[in-house]
What we know:
About 55% of the residues lie in helices and about 5% in strands. The chain has about 260 residues and is mostly helical. The strands form two sheets. Strands 3-4-5 form a three-stranded antiparallel β-sheet. A two-stranded antiparallel ribbon has the order 1-2. α2 packs antiparallel against α3 (about 40-55) and α3 (about 40-55) runs parallel beside α5. The longest helix has 24 residues, at about 235-259. Keywords: Membrane, Transmembrane, Transmembrane helix. This is Glycosyl-hydrolase family 116 catalytic region domain-containing protein. InterPro entries: 6-hairpin_glycosidase_sf (IPR008928), GH116_catalytic (IPR006775), Non-lysos_glucosylceramidase (IPR052566).
Amino acid sequence: QEYRMYNTYDVHFYASFALIMLWPKLALSVQYDIDWKDLNLKFVLQVYRDFHLTQDSQYLLDMWPICQDLLDRGSAAFDKLLWNGKYYNYDSSGRELSNSVMSDQCAGHWFLRASGLEEEAYQAFPKEKIRCALKSVFDLNVMSFSEGHMGAVNGMRPEGVPDHSSVQSDEVWIGVVYGLAATMIHEGMLEEGMRTAEGCYRTVWERLGMAFQTPEAYCEKNIYRSLAYMRPLSVWAMQLALNTSQRDNSVLAKTVDID
Protein backbone atom coordinates (compact mmCIF):
# COMPACT_ATOMS: atom_id res chain seq x y z
CA GLN A 1 0.00 0.00 0.00
CA GLU A 2 1.58 3.23 -1.17
CA TYR A 3 0.88 6.71 0.15
CA ARG A 4 -0.44 9.05 -2.52
CA MET A 5 0.76 12.35 -1.04
CA TYR A 6 4.22 13.71 -0.31
CA ASN A 7 5.39 16.39 2.10
CA THR A 8 2.09 16.97 3.84
CA TYR A 9 2.98 19.47 6.52
CA ASP A 10 2.03 17.42 9.56
CA VAL A 11 4.40 14.68 8.36
CA HIS A 12 7.05 17.21 7.35
CA PHE A 13 7.08 18.17 11.04
CA TYR A 14 8.95 14.90 11.68
CA ALA A 15 10.86 14.46 8.41
CA SER A 16 12.12 18.06 8.40
CA PHE A 17 15.02 17.15 10.69
CA ALA A 18 16.73 15.51 7.72
CA LEU A 19 16.30 18.60 5.57
CA ILE A 20 17.37 21.21 8.13
CA MET A 21 20.45 19.20 9.10
CA LEU A 22 21.53 18.16 5.60
CA TRP A 23 20.03 20.70 3.18
CA PRO A 24 19.10 23.75 5.29
CA LYS A 25 18.37 26.08 2.38
CA LEU A 26 15.90 23.57 0.98
CA ALA A 27 14.25 23.30 4.39
CA LEU A 28 13.92 27.07 4.70
CA SER A 29 12.45 27.34 1.20
CA VAL A 30 9.59 25.10 2.34
CA GLN A 31 8.88 27.43 5.25
CA TYR A 32 8.97 30.54 3.06
CA ASP A 33 6.22 29.06 0.88
CA ILE A 34 3.85 28.64 3.83
CA ASP A 35 1.29 31.17 5.02
CA TRP A 36 1.91 30.61 8.72
CA LYS A 37 -1.33 32.34 9.80
CA ASP A 38 -3.32 29.42 8.39
CA LEU A 39 -1.35 26.71 10.24
CA ASN A 40 -1.04 25.19 13.69
CA LEU A 41 1.71 25.31 16.12
CA LYS A 42 3.80 22.78 14.24
CA PHE A 43 4.86 25.58 11.92
CA VAL A 44 5.86 27.82 14.82
CA LEU A 45 7.96 25.08 16.38
CA GLN A 46 9.68 24.28 13.08
CA VAL A 47 10.54 27.88 12.33
CA TYR A 48 12.10 28.44 15.75
CA ARG A 49 14.10 25.22 15.45
CA ASP A 50 15.25 26.23 11.97
CA PHE A 51 16.29 29.64 13.26
CA HIS A 52 18.26 27.99 16.07
CA LEU A 53 20.13 25.73 13.65
CA THR A 54 20.68 28.25 10.84
CA GLN A 55 20.22 31.73 12.37
CA ASP A 56 18.20 32.49 9.23
CA SER A 57 14.44 33.09 9.44
CA GLN A 58 12.48 36.17 8.42
CA TYR A 59 9.31 34.96 10.13
CA LEU A 60 10.52 34.95 13.70
CA LEU A 61 10.08 38.59 14.71
CA ASP A 62 6.57 38.75 13.26
CA MET A 63 5.47 35.59 15.03
CA TRP A 64 7.04 36.11 18.44
CA PRO A 65 4.29 38.19 20.16
CA ILE A 66 1.65 35.69 19.04
CA CYS A 67 3.77 32.73 20.16
CA GLN A 68 4.36 34.20 23.60
CA ASP A 69 0.63 34.68 24.15
CA LEU A 70 -0.08 31.12 23.01
CA LEU A 71 2.60 29.81 25.36
CA ASP A 72 1.26 31.63 28.38
CA ARG A 73 -2.31 30.47 27.85
CA GLY A 74 -1.61 27.07 26.38
CA SER A 75 0.86 25.71 28.92
CA ALA A 76 -1.50 26.41 31.82
CA ALA A 77 -4.45 24.80 30.05
CA PHE A 78 -2.39 21.82 28.91
CA ASP A 79 -1.30 21.03 32.44
CA LYS A 80 -4.68 21.64 34.06
CA LEU A 81 -6.73 19.65 31.56
CA LEU A 82 -4.42 16.74 30.72
CA TRP A 83 -1.91 15.96 33.49
CA ASN A 84 -3.11 12.99 35.59
CA GLY A 85 -0.14 12.58 37.92
CA LYS A 86 1.80 10.13 35.73
CA TYR A 87 1.42 11.32 32.14
CA TYR A 88 -0.67 13.59 29.92
CA ASN A 89 -4.06 12.12 28.99
CA TYR A 90 -4.93 11.65 25.33
CA ASP A 91 -7.68 14.26 25.62
CA SER A 92 -9.76 16.09 28.20
CA SER A 93 -13.17 14.70 27.26
CA GLY A 94 -13.44 12.44 30.29
CA ARG A 95 -14.70 9.62 28.09
CA GLU A 96 -13.71 6.00 28.66
CA LEU A 97 -10.53 6.12 26.56
CA SER A 98 -9.48 9.70 27.22
CA ASN A 99 -6.74 8.50 29.59
CA SER A 100 -4.99 6.39 26.96
CA VAL A 101 -1.22 6.83 26.93
CA MET A 102 -0.13 8.50 23.68
CA SER A 103 3.46 7.79 22.67
CA ASP A 104 3.81 11.22 21.05
CA GLN A 105 2.50 13.24 23.99
CA CYS A 106 5.81 15.12 24.50
CA ALA A 107 6.26 16.20 20.87
CA GLY A 108 6.06 19.91 21.68
CA HIS A 109 8.73 19.58 24.36
CA TRP A 110 10.87 17.60 21.91
CA PHE A 111 10.94 20.53 19.49
CA LEU A 112 11.75 23.02 22.24
CA ARG A 113 14.76 20.94 23.27
CA ALA A 114 15.79 20.52 19.62
CA SER A 115 15.68 24.32 19.39
CA GLY A 116 18.34 24.68 22.07
CA LEU A 117 15.82 25.67 24.74
CA GLU A 118 16.14 24.03 28.15
CA GLU A 119 15.10 26.38 30.91
CA GLU A 120 12.43 27.86 28.64
CA ALA A 121 11.17 24.38 27.73
CA TYR A 122 10.69 23.51 31.37
CA GLN A 123 8.64 26.66 31.88
CA ALA A 124 6.11 25.21 29.46
CA PHE A 125 6.48 21.59 30.56
CA PRO A 126 7.89 21.04 34.08
CA LYS A 127 10.94 18.79 34.04
CA GLU A 128 9.64 16.33 36.60
CA LYS A 129 6.41 15.88 34.64
CA ILE A 130 8.21 15.37 31.34
CA ARG A 131 10.48 12.73 32.88
CA CYS A 132 7.50 11.04 34.52
CA ALA A 133 5.52 11.06 31.27
CA LEU A 134 8.44 9.64 29.28
CA LYS A 135 8.92 6.91 31.86
CA SER A 136 5.23 6.02 31.61
CA VAL A 137 5.48 5.86 27.82
CA PHE A 138 8.61 3.70 28.02
CA ASP A 139 7.10 1.31 30.57
CA LEU A 140 3.73 1.00 28.82
CA ASN A 141 3.96 1.86 25.10
CA VAL A 142 7.42 0.32 24.64
CA MET A 143 8.11 -2.40 27.19
CA SER A 144 4.51 -3.62 27.61
CA PHE A 145 4.03 -3.86 23.83
CA SER A 146 5.31 -7.01 22.13
CA GLU A 147 7.71 -7.58 25.05
CA GLY A 148 9.58 -4.38 24.21
CA HIS A 149 10.80 -5.58 20.80
CA MET A 150 8.80 -3.45 18.33
CA GLY A 151 9.18 0.18 19.42
CA ALA A 152 6.36 2.27 20.89
CA VAL A 153 2.73 1.64 20.01
CA ASN A 154 0.80 4.86 19.39
CA GLY A 155 -1.85 4.26 22.04
CA MET A 156 -1.65 2.15 25.16
CA ARG A 157 -4.15 1.73 27.95
CA PRO A 158 -2.87 2.41 31.48
CA GLU A 159 -3.58 -1.24 32.35
CA GLY A 160 -0.95 -2.33 29.81
CA VAL A 161 -2.91 -3.37 26.70
CA PRO A 162 -2.89 -1.53 23.35
CA ASP A 163 -5.69 0.91 22.59
CA HIS A 164 -7.67 -0.77 19.79
CA SER A 165 -10.25 1.99 19.45
CA SER A 166 -9.01 3.12 16.02
CA VAL A 167 -6.94 2.00 13.06
CA GLN A 168 -4.04 4.20 14.11
CA SER A 169 -4.03 3.75 17.87
CA ASP A 170 -2.65 0.21 17.85
CA GLU A 171 -0.02 0.93 15.18
CA VAL A 172 3.65 1.78 15.59
CA TRP A 173 4.55 4.90 13.60
CA ILE A 174 8.27 4.65 13.01
CA GLY A 175 8.81 8.39 12.61
CA VAL A 176 7.00 9.05 15.87
CA VAL A 177 9.14 6.44 17.62
CA TYR A 178 12.38 8.08 16.48
CA GLY A 179 11.06 11.45 17.67
CA LEU A 180 10.18 9.89 21.03
CA ALA A 181 13.65 8.36 21.24
CA ALA A 182 15.20 11.77 20.52
CA THR A 183 13.12 13.32 23.31
CA MET A 184 14.37 10.69 25.74
CA ILE A 185 17.96 11.36 24.72
CA HIS A 186 17.50 15.10 25.25
CA GLU A 187 16.23 14.29 28.74
CA GLY A 188 19.23 12.14 29.64
CA MET A 189 17.38 8.86 29.13
CA LEU A 190 19.89 7.50 26.60
CA GLU A 191 19.39 3.81 27.36
CA GLU A 192 15.61 4.08 27.14
CA GLY A 193 15.81 6.13 23.96
CA MET A 194 18.08 3.68 22.18
CA ARG A 195 16.00 0.70 23.32
CA THR A 196 12.87 2.41 22.01
CA ALA A 197 14.41 3.08 18.58
CA GLU A 198 16.02 -0.35 18.41
CA GLY A 199 12.61 -2.00 18.32
CA CYS A 200 11.76 -0.19 15.08
CA TYR A 201 15.15 -0.83 13.53
CA ARG A 202 15.08 -4.55 14.22
CA THR A 203 11.46 -4.87 13.10
CA VAL A 204 11.90 -3.00 9.81
CA TRP A 205 15.39 -4.08 8.82
CA GLU A 206 15.74 -7.53 10.33
CA ARG A 207 12.29 -9.08 10.74
CA LEU A 208 10.31 -7.49 7.90
CA GLY A 209 13.25 -7.09 5.51
CA MET A 210 12.12 -3.68 4.25
CA ALA A 211 15.52 -1.99 4.30
CA PHE A 212 15.11 1.28 2.39
CA GLN A 213 11.37 0.82 2.00
CA THR A 214 10.64 1.84 5.61
CA PRO A 215 6.85 2.12 5.98
CA GLU A 216 4.78 4.67 7.83
CA ALA A 217 3.35 2.11 10.23
CA TYR A 218 3.14 -1.50 11.30
CA CYS A 219 1.19 -3.36 13.95
CA GLU A 220 2.04 -6.23 16.26
CA LYS A 221 0.95 -8.81 13.66
CA ASN A 222 3.53 -7.44 11.17
CA ILE A 223 0.90 -5.84 8.95
CA TYR A 224 2.31 -2.61 7.52
CA ARG A 225 1.25 0.27 5.29
CA SER A 226 2.68 3.10 3.18
CA LEU A 227 6.11 1.95 2.09
CA ALA A 228 9.01 4.39 1.70
CA TYR A 229 7.28 6.92 3.93
CA MET A 230 8.98 10.20 4.83
CA ARG A 231 8.12 10.46 8.55
CA PRO A 232 10.93 8.05 9.61
CA LEU A 233 13.44 10.69 8.46
CA SER A 234 12.97 11.92 12.01
CA VAL A 235 15.80 9.51 12.83
CA TRP A 236 17.97 12.59 12.21
CA ALA A 237 16.38 14.10 15.32
CA MET A 238 18.13 11.35 17.27
CA GLN A 239 21.44 12.41 15.74
CA LEU A 240 20.77 16.01 16.73
CA ALA A 241 19.89 14.94 20.27
CA LEU A 242 23.05 12.87 20.53
CA ASN A 243 25.16 15.76 19.20
CA THR A 244 23.55 18.14 21.70
CA SER A 245 24.00 15.75 24.61
CA GLN A 246 27.65 15.13 23.76
CA ARG A 247 28.30 18.87 23.47
CA ASP A 248 26.59 19.58 26.79
CA ASN A 249 28.55 16.82 28.51
CA SER A 250 31.78 18.14 27.02
CA VAL A 251 31.07 21.64 28.32
CA LEU A 252 30.18 20.23 31.73
CA ALA A 253 33.40 18.21 31.84
CA LYS A 254 35.48 21.27 30.97
CA THR A 255 33.67 23.28 33.64
CA VAL A 256 34.39 20.62 36.24
CA ASP A 257 38.06 20.49 35.22
CA ILE A 258 38.39 24.26 35.46
CA ASP A 259 36.75 24.27 38.89
